[in-house]
Amino acid sequence: MTEQNIQAGTAGIPTTGTASNYDPQKVEAKWQKRWAEARVFETDADPSKPKYYVLEMLPYPSGTMHMGHMRNYAIGDVVARVKRMRGFNVLHPMGWDAFGLPAENAAIKNNTHPREWTNKNIAEFQRVLRRFGFSYDWRREISTCEPEYYRWNQWVFLRMLERGLAYRKKSRVNWCPKCCTVLANEQVVNGGYCWRHEDTLVESREIEQWFLKTTEYADQLLDDLKKLEGGWPERVILMQKNWIGKSQGAKVKFAVADLAGAEPIEIFTTRIDTIYGATAVILAPTHPLVSKLLEGSPKRAEAEPKLAKMRQTSVKTEDLATMEKEGFFTGRFALNPFNGEKIPIWVANFVLMEYGTGAIMAVPAHDERDFEFCAKYGLPKPIVVIPKGGSETQDPPSKTEGGAPTIATDGVFTEYGVSINSGPFSGMESATAISKMAEFAEQKGFGRAETIFRLKDWGISRQRYWGTPIPVIYCSKDGLVPVPDKDLPVLLPPNPKLTGEGESPLAATPEFVNTSCPKCGGPARRETDTMDTFVDSSWYFYRYCDAHNDKAPFDAAKVAYWFQIDQYIGGITHAILHLLYSRFWCKVMRDLGLVHHDEPIARLFTQGMVQKGGVAMSKSRGNVVGAEEMAQKYGADTGRLYTLFAAPPEKDLEWSEESIEGSWRFLNRVYRLVERRAPAIRGLKSVKVGAAATSAEEKSLLRKAHQTLRRVTSDFETRWHFNSAIALVMELTNEIYSHESLGSTVRPEVRKEVLELLVLMLAPMTPHLSEELWEMLGHEGGLWTVSWPKFNEELAREDEVEIVVQVKGRVRGKVKVSVGASEDEVVKLALADPSVEQHTAGKQIVKKIYVPDKLLNLVVD
Ligand SMILES: [Zn+2]
Ligand SMILES: [Zn+2]
Fold first, then answer.
1. Which of 44, 241, 717, 831 has the fewest CB atoms within 10 Å around its CB?
2. Which ligand is the nearest neighbour of the Cα of 177?
3. How far is the CA of 22 from the centre of ligand 2 (A)?
C-alpha cells in the first residue's frame, strides 16, 4: 500500500468478527503497575551509555486535558520508547507551567486561592497522563509555582542584575484594562487586542518596568540560528530571524524648519542612498516630538483627533504590510540635510516607535510602503535610483537627467541600481552610495551608519500575584538593594487580596511590602511586581536534570551529561516567544558558567493541531474530546494509536469517531491473532528461524515481516512517518491472517518469529497491549528488557524484481527476473518481449546499460 491511499481507520480493518477478550482497562492498569514497580522509566546520568533527552513542552494546567494535548505526548512517547529499545539512556520528564493569569482570574471569580485551583488542575493532568501510560520519570516532576523552583528564577535574576542584564526603566507598555496588567507585545493580538480578552482594546501607558537585556544577545541569537539548521523547522528559524530583525542602515537627522528650539528629527533608513528622493518625514503617533510640532501649528485642530485615535490602537509588525495606511500632515516642514530641500512632516500609523527611531523618511519611488502612502495622500515620487545599465524604468518620463525618467508613476524600484538626481553621489552604484553617503553624514555631523534590531529588551514586570516575586528591595537611604542570596526565596504572601483591579495584589499586601533593608536594617519596601511566566519556562528543562537540588538551580555535571535536548516537541505557536527566551536564557547561563553549550535544543519538532469540525480543539469552542473519557471508552492504547495513525505528525488532524473505531478494531484483531496462536507456540524456544525457512509460504511471510520492520524502523528513526508505519503493520497483520486461512504450511517457529516482530513493532505506540501479548507469547521479562529487533536484509529481499526496459532512453516494456539476474539473461528476456521487440527488430544494438535489479537501456542504430 502506498502512503497516498492510506485512509485513517480503513486500511486492513475488517468490519466483522471484532469480538475478542481484549480488555484495555485491565491490561493497561496491570502494566502501568508493573512499570512503576520495576521503575522502568527512572533514569540517571550514566556515562557508559549513549544518552537521549526527549521532551514535550510542559503544559499549562488549565481546563480539561483533551486529545489535542495527547497527540504531543503520544509522539514524544513513541520516540522515547524506541530510543530505549535501541539502547539509549533516555531522559523523558514532565512538569507544570503553573504560574499565570488564568489561575489568578479563576481565584478572583471563585474566591479561592490560585494555588488551590492550580494544584487541582495539576492533579487532574497528572492522572490523565498516567492513565495514558506515558513513559515519564515522575521523580523529576517540577511545578514552576513551588518556591523550590521559583527561587532559582530569583537567583538567576540577581546574577543578571549584577551584570547589568536586568534593569529598570520607565517605558510605554501595553495595558489591558480588563487584566489590569501589562502585556508583552506578543500578548497583543489582532491589531491591538488583549490575547485573553479578544474584545478588549489594549491601551498604552507609561510606567517603571523591569527588563532583561535580550538585545545584548541580539547578534548571537541571530548568528546561532545557523547552528539550528537541519535540526529545527526552517519556518521557525525564519520566524525567529524576522523577530530579531537585524537591519544595517543609517540614522540621519532632519532639522525642523521655522520652529524655534525644535530638536531635529532622527530617522532610520536602510537605504540612505535614496535620501534625495525623500518627499516627507513621517513620525510614529507616539513619537515624543509630535506634540511639540503640533503646538501652534495651523493644522493642530485637524490633527489632534486623528492623533488620539492612532495612539489608542497598537499596531503589530505582522500587520504592517496589509493594514490600511493612515496619516496626517503636521503643518511643519523638515530640511533634508543632503540638499536643503523643505519636505512636509507627517504622522502615520504604519511607523512604529518600537522600531528604529520611530521616524522615517518617505521615499515613494523606492519603497512599496512609502509608495502606497504617498500615492494615497498625493505626495510626489521622484526617482533617484535606476537599474544598472538601464535607462528606462517607469514611463511616461517627465523631466530627465541623463535621459532617465524622474517621476515614478505606477510602481516602485526597490532593488539596488545606480543613483541619479543625487547631487555628487549621482552615478554611484547603490552599495557605494550607501557607504559614501553615510560617511558624508558622519563628517557633517548629521548622521552615521548603524545596525538596528527589531528585537526589544524583554519586559518581565507583571502587576500580578501568581508569579515569581522580583527579589529587590527599595530603601530610602540605600536606594535599590538586591535581596541577598541567603534570603531567597522571596516567598509569595500566602493570603493575598485578589480583586483583579487597580495596582498589583502584592502592593496591596502590607506584610509583603514592608520589610527591612538588607544593608542598613532600616524600614524598606519590597518590589511588588512579579515576573512574566515566560521566565519560568525559559530554563525548566535544565531543572529536570536535577529537580530537587536545593543548593543550586542544578548540578552542572548532570546538565552536561543530558544536554543538549536531543528532541523537543511542541506547537508552532511557541516559535518565537518561548523558544527565543529559552535560547537567551541558555546564553546567559553559559556566560554565568552554568552550562557549556550555546543552544539548548538540538532538534525541534512542531506537531500539527488536533481539530474537530475544522477548528482546533479548545474548551472555549466546546469541541474537545476529553482524554480521560477516550481512555475509559477505548483504552489509552487505542487513543494513542489513533492520534499517531490519523495523520502525519506535522499535519493537522481532523478528529473522526469512525476512525477511532477502526483503530480499536485493529487492536482487537491483533489481540485475537496472538491469543489464538499463543498456546501452540508459547513453549517454543525463541529461535530466529531466519534463512532456514524452507517452504515458499514461510519465505513469503518472513519477507513481509522483515520488509515491514525495515520500513517501520526508518519511519520511527528518521522520517517520523508514524502513520505509514502503522499502515504497514496493519498490512502485515492481514498477511498473517491470510496465511492462517490458507491452511498454512508455516511452522510454529516461523509463526512465532513473525508474531513477535509484530508485537515489538507495535510496542512504542501501544505499549500496554504489546506487553500483554509479549507475555502471552511466553516471555516473562517485560518488554523493557527487549531490544528493538534488527531486520534481516536477506529475508527482506524480494525473490523477483521487475526490470524497466528502455530503448534509446524511452520506456518500452518491463520484464520479471529473479533477483541478481545477469545482464545477458535480462537482455535475452527483454528482446523476447513483444513491446520491446517492436523497437529493436532489424536494428543493431550498439550499447547496453544495465542497472542490476532495476533498469536496462538498449541503444539501437
Ligand atoms: Zn486582558
Ligand atoms: Zn538601607
1. 44
2. 1
3. 71
In the predicted structure, residue 394 carries a pLDDT above the cut 50: no
> Which H or E run includes 60?
none
Q: Which DSSP state fits 229?
A: B
482 CA distance to ligand 2 centroid (A)?
Answer: 11
Q: How far is the CA of 533 from the centre of ligand 2 (A)?
A: 30
Cis amide bond preceding 187, omega within 30: no
Rounded to the nearest angstrom, the distance between the alpha carbon of 493 and the centre of ligand 2 is 22
CB 543 within 8 A of CB 554: yes
518, 473 contact by CB (below 8 A): yes
Residues 641-684 have pLDDT tens digits of 999 999 999 999 999 888 999 999 999 999 999 999 899 888 88
Ligand nearest to the CA of 189: 1
Report cis status (omega within 30 of 0) of the bond before 14.
Answer: no
What is the C-alpha to C-alpha distance for residues 135 and 36, in angstroms, rounded to an integer?
10
Cα(303) to centroid of ligand 1, in Å? 30
Ligand in nearest proximity to the CA of 181: 1
- pTM for the complete prediction? 0.81
Expressed in angstroms and rounded, the spacing between residue 155 Cα and the centre of ligand 2 is 21
Q: Which of 167, 332, 364 is nearest to 264 (CA)?
A: 332
* Class of residue 390 by CB neighbours under 10 A (exposed 0-12, middle 13-18, buried 19+): exposed
Q: How far is the CA of 499 from the centre of ligand 1 (A)?
A: 14
Gap from CA of 535 to ligand 1 centroid (Å):
20
Q: Is the pLDDT of residue 322 over 90?
A: no
Find all residues with CB under 8 Å of 510, minimum gap 6, and list them: none
